[in-house]
Amino acid sequence: MDGFAGGMTARGPTLADDREQWTGSLHIVDLPSAEAARAFVEREPYNAAGLYDQHIIRRFENLLGRTMWEFPEGSADPRFLVIAQREPGAEEPALLLPGLEARLREQLIVHGDLLSLDDARPAGVALALRAPTRDAVGALLRDGRPGLDEHFDLQILDWEFGGRR
User: Fold this and answer.
1) What is the DSSP letter of 73?
2) Exposed (0-12), middle (13-18) or buried (19+): which is 61, by Cβ within 10 Å?
């Protein structure tokens, strides 16, 4: 994976509630094609070892324009990964409104649109942020947006920075 470090926006394991056991991993990496993305997934060490039951490959449009390594340290709050994939046939409501992004700017580590791999159709949103608890993340995302779960398969996962610096 070190060979991809120059194109990495973020990487790291998702964690169980105890924040000790790994449940998966995130890699946001700039690759030249859908084929290169599929090859990356096949070579990812934990996937190649058969440790994952499934994987999701999406294009990522970086809305913050920075990497996780450029995120300022400071708070001891844990980090969370939010993956909000559009439900099939759902309209395209905005998950994050500009006002919400502004309020969260200091807590947002990564934020971007998810697009389908082959045809770049809107597929959802992904973000990583610092927050006191998983419930606090859910409250921030639902604040003023009833029915969010009707449009998105919303996952809030414990997450931490991974890789070498």
Assistant:
1) P
2) middle
pTM: 0.87
The dihedral built from the CA positions of residue 104, 121, 47 and 36, taken in this order, carries a sign that is negative
Cβ neighbour number for residue 25 with a 10 Å cutoff: 21
pLDDT of residue 149: 62
pLDDT in tens, 25-49: 999 999 999 999 999 999 988 888 8
Read off the tokens for 142: 């639902």
Q: What is the 3-state secondary structure (H, E, C) of 75-106?
A: CCCCEEEEEEEECCCCCCCCCCCHHHHHHHCC
- The superfamily in CATH containing domain 2-159 is Dimeric alpha+beta barrel (3.30.70.1060)
The number of residues making up the chain comes to: 165
Q: Which two tokens stand for residue 151?
A: 């449009």
Tell me the CA end-to-end span of the chain in Å, nearest whole number. Answer: 12
Report the candidate in 92, 99, 97, 158 with the shortest Cα–Cα distance to residue 130. Answer: 158
Tokens 């700039």 sit on residue: 30
The tokens of 120 are what?
A: 């770049």
